[in-house]
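Hey, resending since the last one bounced:
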Amino acid sequence: MEKSIKKYWPLFIVPTMAAFTIGFIIPFVYGVFLSFCKFTTVADWKWVGFKNYTRIFFINGKLDTTFIHSMWYTALFTLVTVLVINIVAFAIAMALTKGIRGTNIFRTAFFLPNLIGGIVLSYIWLMIFNSILAKHSMTIVSTQWTAFWGLVAVVCWQQIGYMMIIYIAGIQNIPADLIEAAKIDGANNRQLLRYVTIPMLMPTITICTFLTLTNGFKLFDQNLALTGGKPGKLSELLALNIYDTMYGTTGWQGVGQAKAVIFFILVAIIALIQNKLTTSKEVEQ
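The structure tokens again:
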């Protein structure tokens, strides 16, 4: 049986590799190529070299701060959401694994927001935020910071339940005899958390951190529906900024594609660094 599987392994791997090549590698490579071209459709490209990349930051010799602003704004947004989502999800997961009554109901309630689409969820929260802020003669897009915290609230509310489920699975996989042994040795709750629970959850923490990190950088639909980049593009995250560049201005498709390439490289580097750091913590444990 084992020899048969080894003999016919191409039947299993070739369809997957073909789909991956057609659906990802070819579009990705062609997209990188188009970042060096001026185009309106993918068939009428004209090679311009690095001109698109210089136009990301400079327009007619003047510094364009829009893209730079969206970069640090996205980085700050991602940092805040990664911390809030993981800390709150972990705390809820710890509480719901203590055997309290109604645990399944609470798990379902916390997870339900994740089932709602980002656009729909954002429009619901938009009405809620604006109805509250109207009492102060404000809206969600009155300033970039009201928009910022509105986005943080929506994304955290949507994703905390999903990360909670992952943390619960990780906590339930911790060997009970290990916890019992620590208690027999006199470990209190804080020591159990620090020396047993967290070290055993490092693979789970790695997964949740990676997911929230990439989700934060890639956020688009909530940003589009909740703030639309207002006021004055000050609440634009990177994905929305790239979208506006690609489809908001005629002749800037190549610049938008160049931004997308930089965006991919940035997210890939940050994800690899995060994975390296959390994996090294796992090895130390």
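The two ends are 39 Å apart (CA to CA).

Sorry for the duplicate.
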